[in-house]
Fold this protein.
Amino acid sequence: MLKNFTSINLNRLIIIFLVLNVIAKIFFISRPIEFIDSVAFPDDTYISLFLAEQIAEGFGPLYGENFTNGFQPLYVFLSAPFYLLFDSDKIAPLYAALILLLIFDCLSLVMLMKTTDLIVHNKYANMLTGIFWVSSPYVLLTSMNGLETIISFFFIVSSFYYFFKYRKTIEGGHSVRQLMVLGVLCGFAIFSRIDNGILAAVMLVLIIYDKYKNREGAKGLIYSALVFTLSVFVIVLPWFIYSYLYTGDFFQSSGEGVRFQNLSLKNHFSFISSQQLEIVLYGIRIILIKNFSLIVICSLCLIIILLRYRKTTVQELKKRFHYIFPVLAFCLLLFCSYVFYIYGMWFFKRYFFPFVFLFVIILSVLIDMVLTSTPDRKSASGLLIFFSAAILLINLTRNDAKDIFFNSNSNSGYMTIGKWVSENFDDGTVIGSMQSGAMSYFAQNVKVINLDGVVNEDALAAAKNKRLMDYVREMKIEYIIGWDANIDFLIRESEGFDKTDLTKEFTIAGFKTWEREWSVYKVNYQ
């Protein structure tokens, strides 16, 4: 099978996996939008695309009564032209957004394989990266979630690729042009997701370390740091100005909204508590489960290496660790920022998606060590076939893979509640909701007010002051629609809440969203 382990053409390999990747993703995108909505779209998808529509129509980032900066700008700005192209159509822009994400998904695969190529000696080690990406239901559902996740991932991988490439080529030195390019890539990473400020910080430390290692003086260190930092700000500064002009704030309020919801859910727990430990363990669990196939193969490779070359393994791993460490540092800082500050456990699946990159890097190092230490071609071919089959078997037998292929429930997403509200309330009705994205997107005949604070700073301020019910009345909200957990949040964050403040009208029959029922409550003003 493998005539020459080092002669395989990388570009040819990339093209093969790109074709397979496009086929897999097009198969998914070609499904009815109701199905895609049920298995992939969170409510935040519709918040982002509603704001894209508002911007396209010239209203700016207007959500309800107020302007908001509670969104990731690059994806929203890139999606805005779809609403000019398709006018009042609500469905076509969703498919257009998925095509946009497919493009970034393919670009991410290219950059992943190019990055691993910098690391490996045995070119066939790249095959496992492609096989994992094409077959992973986690990758598919995350990249096609109607959000910025895969765009952010592309710029993360691109930034590391560029850094590794020139660090390897010039042994730690960086020219002004290279620092500027790296800064621009990190700037776009932040523009795509604000938490990639962590990426820029890691890169800045690495640049300073390289300069220090090369015995450059303080002047050189400061100059390099300034060039990189200014290049980052060239990209993100227009967004900060845009945000400030509309909202009076430079940074997004959405993170604080998510944090407050989680604190409320856990009764505003202390840092040292069982609830904090629960969040940390849940974060670890999500990372392990979602990257299970990569972790299994990495473990098998490590066992093989230890059994064969126990003495040289540590030394060889040390040589390759300069590729693993920067990605590991970024991922650990990202992990800590969410499990110790932002929280939002329900979003951990997408927040921790960059760990895919970390495990791909680790796998590339280990599989390369296994294959290059196996001189017998038949044995090496057998190992490669075994590892490939194991990845495919694990990925394609997961529960989320079954959802992609066998889920017959096409009305269990957020689209259903959005359309139901549009069809069942009179024009102009004022509705409040904690999960308001799909209602805002599909029910534009009514007025939807966000109550969880993610895209409404006034609601967040009211909740922090325990007067959320007062805010509901100030906004003249007539009905509140939500899950039981949403109503519990309203009650907790409303001091002096009385059971007569709301009257439960009914629980909506015929559909659930993520296995949870929606209920309609009437706001009482007597």
